[in-house]
Amino acid sequence: MNDLSFPILTVIVLLPAAGCAVVALLPKSRPDIVKLVGFLFAVATGAFTVWLGFAFHAGEPGYQFVTEHAWIKDFGISWLLGVDGISLFLVVLTGILFPIALGGVKVHRDVKAYTAWMLLLEAGCLGAFLSLDLFVFFLFFEITLVPMYFIIGGWGYDNRVYASVKFFLYTLFGSAFMLVGMLTLVFLSAKGHAVTFDVRILTERNALAPATAQWVFLAFAIGFAVKVPLFPVHTWLPDAHTEAPTAGSVILAGVLLKLGTYGLVRFGVALFPSAAVDMAPLLLTLAVIGIIYGALVATVQRDLKRLVAYSSVAHLGFIVLGTFALTNQGVSGGVLQMVNHGLSTGALFLLVGMISDRRHTRQISQLNGLQKSMPVLAAVFTVVMLSSVGLPGLNGFVGEFLVLLGTFITRRWFAVVATAGVILAALYLLWAYQRVFHGTPTGDNVGLPDINWREAAAVGPLVVLIVALGVYPKPVLDRVNPSVEALIQHVEKATGYKQPAVAEGHSLVDK
Amino acid sequence: MLDHLWLIPLMPLAGFLLLVAFGKRAGDPSAGWIGVTAVAGAFLFTVLALFALLGRPSEERSVDQVLFTWIQVGGFKVSFALLLDQLSVTMALFVTGVSTLIHIYSVGYMKGDPRYPRFFVYLNLFVFSMLMLVLGDNLLVTFLGWEGVGACSYLLISFWFERESAASAGKKAFVVNRVGDFGFMIAMFLCFATFGTLQYTKVLGDLDVASHSTLTAIALLLFLGACGKSAQLPLFVWLPDAMEGPTPVSALIHAATMVTAGVYLLCRMAPLLALTPGVLTFIAVVGCLTALFAATVACAQDDIKRVLAYSTISQLGYMFLAVGSGAYVAAMFHMITHAFFKALLFLGAGSVIHGLHDEQDMKRMGMLKKWMPITWATFMIGWLAISGVPPLAGFWSKDEILLNAYYKSPVLWGLGLATALLTAYYMTRQYRMVFFTNERWRPEAAADKPELTEPEPVGEHHEEVEHAGHGGHGAEPHESGWLMAGPLCVLAGLAALGGLLTFYLHGKPVLEQWLEPVFGDALHQVDATTAQKWLFSGLAVAAAAVGIAFAYSVFERRRRLDAFEPAVLQRAWGIDAFYAAVIASPGKALAAFSAYVIDAKIVDGIVNGAGAVVRGGGSVLRKLQTGYVRNYALGVAFGATLLLGWVMVRSGVGG
After folding, report:
1. Shortest CB distance from B644 goes to which of A183, A397, A405?
2. Is 0.90 topped by the overall pTM?
3. Which of A143, A484, B530, B541 is the most exposed place for a label (fewest CB within 10 A)?
4. Closest by CA position to A82, among listed A144, A142, A137
5. Chains A and B: how many Cβ contacts under 8 Å?
6. Are B277 and B247 in contact (CB under 8 A)?
7. pLDDT tens-digit profile of B227-254?
8. Closest chain B C-alpha to A154 CA, distance in angstroms
9. A492 interfaces chain B, CB cutoff of 8 Å
10. Is residue B65 classed as helix, strand or coil in its secondary structure?
11. Using the beta-carbon criterion (under 8 Å), do B158 and A183 form an inter-chain contact?
């Protein structure tokens, strides 16, 4: 347990919020100062999260750096923050992606409002990942909607209004279910105890009757499934991604979607172990459909951003698959894949943004031969694409492999079908690459400037992490695993479920 | 050396990193020499490792070295570890050796290419990946190399990406290989679930915990992976197209090294395969059919590289035939000799293409013997070696395979012999068309000979390659410089003398003696008498002789170049077209249906429909569609409060 007198987690959540307030006070006429201040706040927050990553004690399953302040005593609501292996790297990922999105992408109008919204968004994301109080989690979870809504609606492309409203309503629709579920859970768990929103206590109590738990779990699952997004509630995503400005897409894909998968692990599986076990087949089925269907639909997309958006549907399917495999490998792989997807899809959106900045189009049919004029950008794109395809040696493979392996040992045929999705991933990405980068450039595709220093500085750290996590994922896994193991043990204790024990010289397949 | 095995893959990795950082500054030819040095260093360290192994008693010739823990979660642990034993050192030796020669050749061949440094970046990365594949101590590290070489293959096939055909070929290679990788991945999952580990020595030492059906499944799945990588039926379609890559790439990746990875993988798993005789038979049949099928196609190709590509598929089929017959040593033997003579032939073809200023159509070649004496002389050795003429390398290894195949089944042997005949025929055809007959590369030649002006077969690729440094058409052919001719000579020597590996030392062939401890009981022993062996050899030589003589008669007497070349063979039995019709088109249609009907109309249609219903829902709801999301949010909050109240009342908390 890490007990510091310095409330590091509170600082991490409030620093970007303070940044938002400071930016709001700056003059609108000086976008350069606004931009710098906003960027510095994001960098400082990022530095704290990275420091958190190093200060975190590997090998400990429980929450670290816990801070608790009572807030609404009567309802047992408190400012309760803590971090464990499951949330740690999502916090670090958020800390890294925001300065990249703020510093690496140009904004064309109203820098002040944009920067303020981005910082508020960052505070919301970090708060959601760090809250151990269900109520506060829900607040942060909902807060993120507002800045994202304005960012898409205010700085997006042509069809931004439709996309932003759809995004907002869709997610809100899911949240309504979650709110009901949350209140039901809290008040049903309170029989004979004080009312509390403390996730640790609620997890420990596990007070719901299995039949009730299923319904409440379902309410949570709908809320998170929309966010993930899981088939068939995914259609807000392609629109939101396509219309969002580059930085919005980076954050949406890199961080916001993870609120859904993180929620499924932290609040779905942990709070409702028996329901998670019972309902696993449903979620596994939807996940596998998402993997195949997302890839299939991505293949025929004409807009590059839409294509990447559908690839997210497939990739997030892998994460849900691993989560509900309910094995160490599956869940750890899923958590790792959340980070991996944030890095590689974040980078993909940055790169697509660079292309559309130069060409003012994202239509694949309008692009060709870009490798000729932009060899470096093409090389970076290749690395990121191969990471997304799941090439061993790059980060995407490790997570995907663990997910599939972890699923195979419990739900063999789900894993087999999902593995077929790996073939499709290669197809749609390589085909898109061929159409956009290969061939002889014609028309406006001739003589485009290659990646510049600002862009390289934005995407560079992501590429480094893509390689590093592929070659040596151990530091991450060593921190993720203990918490995941504790979670699985919790599920095993609460239900009759037992994850298969694989050991040398002991076959699972043949008894 | 055995304590520092990591030095072997480190060399090309260091070369790769160095070239990424400074390749552009080093330029042409320094970047090339950096690449050569790195790979030559790996070769040197491999030789040292070989001697170190030789210095040990034969039962201690297996060194396992853990570098670091790669992935560990729960009971699943995979180390980044290297395994050096007789099998991996043999493979690593010819991989690094042939790679060094081809790197040197490339320094000359790629001269003047605008992306010269990048070529060596990819090539060094390839050698590193190949070494990981070979030296991996577990299936996952091998898979790392397996996918790495696949990615490099993709990058190098589409190296001249301006050409649409090159870009498509690269993508096709990667995607088709993924089908095989699917098998490899499931095989790994099954291995882990069964044995709790992916380490070769542990899996193979623990085979009795698994049932026969599990072992069969693992063997079949690995074979599926091997079929992709080694271009066997039905997944061979990517290899002929892969000829779009620069010729050194075809020689190194698509003939000598990468495509043999499937054979290597199966040899690694030999003890497992030995327990699944049904799968072995299946492998032998697929290999044999592939060998025969590809040989028929090679007879009708006009592109100098496509002939060699189909020939490679055919020769790989021989290797699978050997594996299926339990003759792992013969498979490895043929893999080595094939690496020598096929690399030689490809590099020779590259020299011809270079000398003729990027001409690949054999119908526009001829009489090059006069203009390119070194290329001709070395190509001749390659031609005789692959045709199975003693005492050149190909004769010995093919002979071994056919002998073993006979004891598996006389039918397989018969088909193998027919393949040998066809091999001799199509290689003689190529040899004659390129180096003899008449000078059809002269611009006026085409007009003189009406039978040579037939329309180009569909799908060929004669667009101008942007390949600076090569002059335009019309100039006279020239012999290549020593950078290219030197490696040709060395490979010619190896192709001539490779048969020495089967010479008897202490009562047993050298290679068999060396590799035997790896395969152990899995190795199928043939107990043929000397007379029988002579008989089989005699028949094999006769087949070669008939094939050569027949080709001579066709191309000398009648001078007809399209004598036995029906269109169905030119189009490879229409298999590619069949896949396009049966898999690609319906696949595309399904994807389009999913995207434009299911997703846009149904799934999203319901969502938008629900929105429309709300909007049109009468005057009571009119307030909700004022356009401000805020109002919706308030609505949701209000609804939630009501629900909350209900929940509280029901659960007795509020009351």
Report:
1. A183
2. yes
3. B530
4. A137
5. 222
6. no
7. 999 999 999 999 999 999 999 999 999 9
8. 14
9. no
10. strand
11. no
